[in-house]
Design a protein that fits this description.
This protein is mostly helical and 417 residues long. Strands 1-2 form a two-stranded antiparallel sheet. Strand 1 and strand 2 form a beta hairpin. It has one domain: MFS general substrate transporter like domains (Growth Hormone, Chain: A, Up-down Bundle). Helix 1 runs antiparallel to helix 5, helix 1 runs antiparallel to helix 7 and helix 2 crosses helix 10. The C terminus is likely disordered.
Length: 417
């Protein structure tokens, strides 16, 4: 269909524009405006995990049986009202529940975004591996632009970030209704077993050693995905307590500096087809894990000036490999290895393992680590980042030994049905 790639570009742009409006500044907002502890912030970020634990699977099941488009649109229209509600919460309990209810709709929408994109590209005879990454990169661009706007207007330390995201959510919900529907055709329906009827087929993937190992490490690596999103801006903001650093760019515009991570994403995401076909999913995942090790290590030695600033910038650069080589490549790997009849459920399972169990481990663990290295209100950020660096390095070693996968460059072409 003419213009379908452009429409999917808009879809992905707005999907992550919403997230970029508030995600990076959320931890700073809770530290600076609401005066929450690291454990409280970790608990609230755990709502991302709770929401991703069951909801993506359920939403994937509904999408397979109903319409991914309509479900996606409904999620964002209702989500706009829930974002407004988040802005009204001044205390821990209120914000915890408001965040949970909103993320129960937003987190599954990431998997639905993938499902809709893959569906429409395939129906129009595009090669998903080649065509989707350049489309998905506009999601990252949307995230970056939203982060810049939030930072430039100073909304990162107040509730305006949520109002901003709510407006974008309404726009996306309405726009989605203009796309061709991806509901399953009647010819595809047949009498199903109990497991099929409730969309549980994706869990059969755990019977396969390769897929089970992949999903377990996806969970463990998923624990690292949100740590710098949770505490990155707060970490840079804390340098403002030091006289020599308080007027530096890294302190005054930490949102802009952090957004270099997403700019790096826009570069690395375009390299995914090459790296996947050249090296295979195992080596690509190992590259991602090692990049996470460097991400945290460089944060640990970083500061707003001189070589410290160079270390921070390098950390932002390696983030693109750390995030994309796991998140996007993992999604494509799941697409390759699963039957198209359970595609929505399988993508939901991937999100559940990474942004569900993984995010819960990362949120709780990182909040505990932050408080462990906090004394009299002062955080030892260097030690905090080193703990996360060691964790990532351990994953590199274990995954290299345990994940068994024989790379076949020709097989990636089979993603296009």
């Amino acid at each position: 269909m003419k213009g379908i790639k452009f429409k999917l570009t808009i879809l992905n742009f707005l999907e992550f524009f919403i997230f970029g409006s508030w995600l990076l500044s959320f931890g700073k907002y809770m530290f600076v405006n609401l005066h929450f502890t690291g454990t409280q912030i970790g608990a609230i970020f755990m709502t991302l995990g709770f929401a991703s634990l069951i909801m993506p699977g359920i939403m994937g099941i509904i999408a397979d049986k109903w319409s991914p488009n309509k479900l996606f649109a409904l999620s964002h229209l209702v989500g706009a009202a829930l974002l407004y509600n988040m802005a009204q919460q001044p205390d821990y309990d209120g914000l915890f529940w408001a965040s949970l209810f909103y993320l129960m709709l937003y987190m599954p929408s990431i998997g639905l975004d993938n499902t809709i994109s893959y569906c429409l590209l395939e129906r129009n005879d595009f090669d998903v591996v080649k065509v989707f990454p350049p489309i998905r990169v506009w999601g990252t661009i949307g995230f970056i632009i939203a982060t810049w706007i939030t930072d430039s207007f100073g909304w990162g330390v107040n509730a305006n970030q949520f109002y901003f995201a709510a407006v974008a959510s309404i726009v996306l919900g309405l726009f989605t209704l203009t796309l061709p529907d991806c509901a399953r055709e009647k010819s595809e329906t047949k009498k199903k077993t109990f497991s099929e009827a409730f969309g549980l087929d994706a869990f059969k993937l755990f019977a396969n050693y390769k897929m089970a190992t992949f999903f377990i490490f996806a969970m463990l690596l998923g624990a690292a995905l949100q740590i710098t999103n949770m505490f990155g801006e707060a970490f840079l903001h804390d340098f403002g307590n030091i006289e020599a650093y308080k007027d530096t760019f890294a302190v005054k515009h930490n949102g802009w500096l952090m957004s270099l991570s997403q700019i790096s994403e826009t570069v690395f995401i375009l390299t995914i087809p090459f790296f996947l076909k050249k090296f295979g999913i195992k080596k690509v995942m190992l590259m991602s894990m090692f990049a996470w090790f460097l991400r945290f290590l460089l944060f640990g030695v970083g500061s707003p000036v001189g070589l410290g600033l160079i270390a921070l910038i390098l950390s932002m650069i390696v983030y693109g490999m750390a995030f994309d080589f796991f998140n996007i490549s993992g999604s494509l790997f799941v697409e390759q290895e699963t039957d198209k009849k359970i595609r929505g459920s399988a993508q939901g399972l991937f999100i559940m393992m990474t942004n569900g169990f993984g995010a819960m481990i990362g949120a709780y663990g990182s909040g505990y680590v932050v408080d462990l290295f906090t004394k009299d209100g002062v955080k030892d950020w260097t030690s905090i980042w080193y703990v996360f660096a060691v964790y990532s390095l351990v994953l590199v070693i274990l995954f290299a030994v345990m994940f068994k996968y024989k790379h076949d460059p020709a097989k990636l072409g089979e993603i296009k049905h």
